Amino acid sequence: MSKKEQILKLLEEAKANKWYYPKTFAKLKSLGVIRYEVSWNDGYKAFYFLEQENFQELTKDSLSIQTPVSNTYQESQAKQALYEHQQGKTDFFTLLIQLAEFGISHNIVNMDENTVTYCSINNKHSFVENVPKFKDENDE
């Protein structure tokens, strides 16, 4: 099985089992993902970058997010929406819609730095969140 196939299988498993993000992050990193970028400005698009190859994740959800991104960057509201998502109050696609309303169009995940950078549509504004370390307790 190729790396791409392994990653896509892992992503399916993570979504089906609703893994919390640090677990998904750690598993992607262990498969050689260097970084990935997710945008929701023109539908949901996710691009994964590995040492030897890059690819786009194609999902049935790719067409379901057609939310215009606000030109007004509202960092505190975006952080609050992210916090509420992390508390399990919203699903992933609701979070993306909220982030779009607050002027966030995409994020960049850096596996080496354990960070997610949330960016405005023109990249003038952003904020960085550190990804907590995953503690593999019997693979939760």
What is the CATH topology descriptor? YdfO-like fold
Q: From the helix content, strand content and strand pairing, which structural class follows? A: alpha+beta
How many β-strand runs?
Answer: 6
Distance between the termini: 24 Å
The total count of helices amounts to: 4
Give the class-level CATH name: Alpha Beta
CATH H-level superfamily: YdfO-like
Q: Major beta sheet, specifics?
A: 6 strands, antiparallel
Could you explain how this protein is built, in words?
This protein has one domain: YdfO-like fold (2-Layer Sandwich). By secondary structure, the protein is an alpha+beta fold. α3 packs antiparallel against α4. It has 4 helices and 6 strands, in the order ααβββααβββ. The chain has a 6-stranded antiparallel beta sheet with strand order 3-2-1-4-5-6.
Write the layout of secondary structure elements.
Layout: H1 3-17, H2 21-30, E1 33-39, E2 45-50, E3 54-57, H3 75-86, H4 92-101, E4 104-110, E5 115-120, E6 126-130
Helix pairs in contact: 3-4
Tag the structure with descriptive keywords.
140 residues, alpha+beta, YdfO-like fold, 4 helices
Question: How would you briefly describe this protein structure?
Answer:
With 140 residues, the protein is an alpha+beta fold. It has helices at residues 3-17, 21-30, 75-86, 92-101; strands spanning 33-39, 45-50, 54-57, 104-110, 115-120, 126-130.
